[in-house]
Amino acid sequence: MDQKVMDRRRDARDREVEKALYARREKIYPREVHGLFAYLRITAVVVLLGIFYGLPWLDWNGQQSVLLDMPNRKFHLFGLTLWPQDFLYLAFLLIIAAFSLFFFTALAGRLWCGYACPQTVWTEVFLWMEQWVEGDRNKRMKLDREPMSWHKFRIKATKQFLWLTFSAFTGFTFVSYFSPQDELFQRLMSLQLGPWESFWMFFYGLATYGNAGYLREQVCKYMCPYARFQSAMFDKDTLIISYDAKRGEPRGPRKRSANPRELGLGDCIDCTMCVQVCPTGIDIRDGLQYECIGCAACIDICDEVMEKMGYPKGLIRYTTQNAIEGKQTHLIRPRMIVYGLLLLGMMVALGYAVATRNPIGLDVLRDRNSLFREVGAGLIENVYTLKVMNMDDRPHEYRVTAEGLPELQVLTDRPTFTVRSGEVVEVPVRLRVPEDALGSRRADVTFILQSVDAPELQTSEESRFLGPMP
């Protein structure tokens, strides 16, 4: 009998899942909400979009502050010029970003999704424009139910115009990170954009328009992989948004003056406001769900309702699984300490590496056709090819010297040579040493590359000098 009941329940769940997968999407109309977390989201949107749209227009020492110049293989970041050889810094930065995600997720759940994810940020802006043009939640729902009329067409057209304009500006801003924005703007105004610039401007603008204007919560629920593996970073001390069922149940409507205990009710008045403000349309009272993006809108609206009813706030709040179960919560725990120390160490290491970065590079290649040559007068000669890379943003004149053996001579047809910014120059060099100065068949030598016009720019590279058997 129990097995039959379990089978029926499993079949019912399967039918619900199938219905959810194939049912037509119902549009969600999030209600506007005010409160602490709403103001934090607004602040995050303003700051993050201000950075995204503002950086291409910010000059830094006469250069665009952030410019990823792909054709010239230059990456300008606030006066620092990086080259493809500096790709290690980008890889290190991505590792830091990943550990930051682990750290903040283990600490307070989906903070990234609720406050900083581009999908969340741009969707918030599109919702603001929709609310400004069409009105509050009830007006938007009523407008969508109405048959098409001149009034409805005018409102919808105005919203679409704002969405398309904002999306086009977003596409332009994205491309301006790869093409200088002043030149890009001039080419745009004269309709002389290149094919790749036109493609990416259109593609990114269309992606913004589609994702933030129409897909919205579907990106978070069906397309984003983060919701699927976030639970691997949760533990019972992770801060999550949760409904206090012990305090709220049984739920039910009542007058403000009524005593819920006399009615046998909990503090939840079943107003469904927490569902109406949710951008993904879930009911937080059903427990933690992967669709929850951690925006905390339900906390703000529930606190507002509790205040009007004269009940204590916090029926929906940030809490932990241990706190829900009546156990002690440990926000500072071994996982957080390990993540924090690793994150701090990597940030310090990256900062030190960038601060001490040498903008010149030197590679030494020995001539493999002959190990050594006897050139007379008891001298042994080795031939090398030096590859000199100038990763500075201006040309420099260089000189090569060597040390490591007594009476070492450096012979080259180019005592000094100029290397332009971003250029790699090959310089043939011969080293000569008296045979009696060699103590063994091989010896270590060091090539020293120094800038003539900027002596502080210097680097060195070790190699081997080979001679005959003693």
Task: Explain briefly what this protein structure is.
This protein has 470 residues and is of the alpha+beta class.
Key terms:
Immunoglobulin-like, 4-stranded antiparallel beta sheet, 470 residues, 2 domains, elongated
What is the rounded Rg?
A: 33 Å
Report the uncertain regions: none
First-residue to last-residue Cα separation? 94 Å
Shape: elongated
Number of helices, counting only DSSP H or I runs of 4 residues or more: 16
Give the strand tally: 16
Query: Largest sheet at a glance?
Result: 5 strands, antiparallel
Question: Could you explain how this protein is built, in words?
Answer:
By secondary structure, the protein is an alpha+beta fold. The protein folds into two domains: 22-357, no CATH class; 360-466, Immunoglobulin-like. It has helices at residues 2-22, 36-54, 87-108, 111-116, 118-134, 137-145, 150-175, 181-189, 195-215, 217-223, 226-229, 245-248, 273-276, 297-309, 321-324, 334-355, and strands at residues 59-60, 63-64, 66-69, 74-77, 80-82, 240-243, 316-319, 360-366, 373-374, 379-390, 396-403, 409-411, 416-419, 424-434, 442-451, 458-466. The strands form five sheets. Strands 8, 9, 10, 12 and 14 form a five-stranded antiparallel sheet that branches. Strands 13-11-15-16 form a four-stranded antiparallel sheet, with no helix packed on it. A three-stranded antiparallel sheet has the order 3-4-5, with no helix packed on it. The longest helix has 26 residues, at 150-175. It starts with a helix and ends with a strand.
